[in-house]
Amino acid sequence: MDLGIEGRRALVCAASKGLGRGCAEALAREGVDVTICARTESEVAKTAADIGEATGRAVQWVACDITTPDGRAKALAACPQPDILVNNAGGPPPGDFRDWDRAAWIRALDANMLTPIELIKATIDTMIERKFGRIVNITSGAVKAPIDVLGLSNGARSGLTGFVAGLARKVARHNVTINNLLPGQFATDRLRVTLEGRAKAAGTTYDVARDAAMAANPSGRFGAPGEFGEICAFLCSTHAGFIVGQNILADGGAYPGTF
Ligand code: NAD
What we know:
Elements: E1 9-12, H1 18-29, E2 33-38, H2 41-55, E3 60-63, H3 69-78, E4 84-87, H4 102-130, E5 133-138, H5 151-171, E6 176-183, H6 189-202, H7 206-216, H8 225-235, E7 247-250
Helix pairs in contact: 1-2, 1-8, 4-5, 6-7
């Protein structure tokens, strides 16, 4: 299927690896002019070169911390007025809510709620003017089924989800869509760190914890960042203009509800 977005400009945040990288690669394969960002210059530059080689489409890059005003300014200077915005950042640490002070909450809110809102604010008006815009926020399956130790994530991402639900309906008539893509367990570095922690707590090995987690998923496996990227690319396509304000769960069936 031709997604109809060749030549469009995309800013994909936090994309030197993992899910962000998967999204960047899928968009580049569709002929989109992609700019990626991540904090470490050597890593983001290498990823841009690797995606360029794999897709035949040059990828721009910028080293910045997207959760800071300065970092966002750098990203937007590298990719002014994108047609496509993929919001992403690292997730907050796990823990017990009794240990989280105001500063911990502000960090989580900054990264996983206010940063995407700031980037939407900076880019959406020109999308409206051009009558084309696609915004995908990478959130988490924890928005639908909260994970107890990830309270910072549950809270901050739910705030973003509520905000987006309102705004998405205000901009849809301009062919600007905003949707959230909710990952379940995808085989990335972040999942590896989570499973290593779980293995340590249970006094077992990483392999045992990984195999148990895979077996517990109805699909019997973890998702691959590439397949996450393909879903994102479809949501950014010309064909997805009627998908508005949705929370698309990609979790292999882990969420047990009927709806
Ligand atoms: P990852 O650790 O594999 O990759 C994260 C990427 O973000 C890296 O490129 C890193 O350099 C970049 N990054 C992190 N903080 C940044 C910042 N402040 N500024 C710029 N770049 C930054 O993680 P992932 O698994 O791809 O996760 C992406 C998001 O999805 C996270 O918020 C995570 O919590 C969420 N999530 C992931 C899973 C999963 O199973 N992988 C499940 C649910 C939610």
